[in-house]
Design brief:
165 residues; mainly alpha; 2 domains; three-stranded antiparallel beta sheet; 3 strands; 8% strand; elongated
Length: 165
């Protein structure tokens, strides 16, 4: 039995009259945890082996490849751009197909419908262009292996996970 465990048991048996039964258990657990943190604090924490990033994520839309590569700003830009373009295109297609079933457009609405169709096609093309640029960028900056390294911050017992190369 280590000196820390013996001391924790001695303190808990000495203070039985002061703490009710559940409180003694909490007190003993806290002492054991503190002693184990004090003895393990001098050891260097083990590092995790490198993880392999899945390659297929580079081909996903909405900035998934950028997020995987550790570029959250680029990922957010691609996500917002692609989402806005595909939503606009789909909403215009849905409106035109329900407002003018069977492609029957009154003469007075023809110019407006043509303009909406052009905007629908342009936003659809903008989505596919942003998607293609996002995939090319993700493939260009792809790193197959990334290491997660634990680190102790401020000497406190605990680990903070951070990405490192």
């Amino acid at each position: 039995m280590s000196a820390h465990v013996a001391r924790a048991k001695a303190l808990s048996s000495r203070d039985r009259s002061q703490y009710p039964c559940p409180m003694r258990r909490v007190f003993l657990a806290a002492l054991l945890l503190a002693s184990s943190c004090a003895t393990n604090g001098s050891k260097k924490p083990p590092t995790n082996p490198p993880t392999t990033q899945p390659y297929y994520v580079n081909y996903m839309p909405f900035g998934a490849g950028q997020f995987q590569n550790g570029e959250p700003v680029k990922g957010a830009v691609f996500a917002v751009t692609e989402c806005a373009a595909v939503t606009t295109s789909a909403a215009l297609w849905l409106y035109l197909s329900t407002a003018y079933p069977g492609d029957l457009v009154p003469i007075g609405h023809a110019e407006r419908v043509q303009t909406l169709e052009r905007v629908e096609m342009a936003t659809g093309a903008a989505f596919f262009a942003a998607y293609a640029i996002g995939v090319a960028d993700a493939l260009l900056h792809y790193r197959a292996r990334t290491r997660l390294a634990p680190s102790v911050v401020g000497g406190s017992p605990g680990l903070v996970w951070s990405w490192s190369e």
